[in-house]
Amino acid sequence: MTTLTLVQGDLTRESADALVNAANSSLLGGGGVDGAIHRRGGPAILEECRRLRAGHLGKGLPTGQAVATTAGDLEARWVIHTVGPVYSDTEDRSGLLASCYRASLRVADELGARTVAFPAISTGVYRWPVDDAARIAVETVRGAATSVAEVRFVLFDDRAYAAFAARAG
Fold first, then answer.
1. Domains of the chain (ranges plus CATH)?
2. Distance separating alpha carbons of residues 52 and 46, to the nearest angstrom
3. Bridge partners, 18 (sequence order)
4. What is the pLDDT of residue 1?
5. How is 32-76 classified by DSSP, letter by letter?
């Protein structure tokens, strides 16, 4: 059984086997969580991302999928990069958001990770409503067949923490 833990704080300060990066499809850094992970993790993460882009991910990482790299200078062994969907009022993309969590846990299992720290994927510049994102994240992680012992949701602010706390109960 996977334990769910909630933490309010900075994902890049967490110690875990794997930290999940809410990446953009280029894998080359960006804003929000993605930029913070690349800045704090140092050049080794970007170097591995560039190798992935030069290889089988030449067109970038598709939304809902996940891939791992070193964690560089972070207090983790790996960074699992996943690309969340942009929220849409006219198209249901909740399956893609759930896929981010499932795919990240699948990669974590392949790596042998026992602890995985997630941000609230897609709730920043991708505008996913945090209450709905929390529902999808918690339901997906609880329903996942995984060997990961602890999933930690690391939430940036009071609002996100409250939304996840209401769902994780």
1. 3-168 (3.40.220.10)
2. 10
3. 78, 116
4. 83
5. HHHHHHHHHH-HHHHHHHHHHHHTTTTT-PPTT-EEEEE-TTSSS
Write out the two tokens for 93.
Answer: 């993309």
Q: Which residues on neighbouring strands pair with residue 20, listed in sequence order?
A: 80
The whole-number mean pLDDT for each consecutive block of 10 residues of the chain, a chain of 169 residues, reads 96 98 95 95 97 96 98 98 98 98 98 98 97 98 98 97 96
Tell me the three state secondary structure of residue 130.
helix
Note the pLDDT of residue 94: 98
CA distance 14 to 76: 8
Which listed residue (10, 17, 34, 158) is catalytic?
34
Is 34 a residue of the active site?
Answer: yes
Contacts 24+ apart (CB under 8 A), 31-36: 31/124, 31/125, 32/124, 32/125, 33/119, 33/124, 36/10, 36/11, 36/12
Residue 3 and residue 75: Cα distance in Å, rounded?
20
What gap in Å lies between CA 169 and CA 33, rounded to an integer? 25
Q: Cβ of 103: how many Cβ atoms within 10 Å?
A: 20
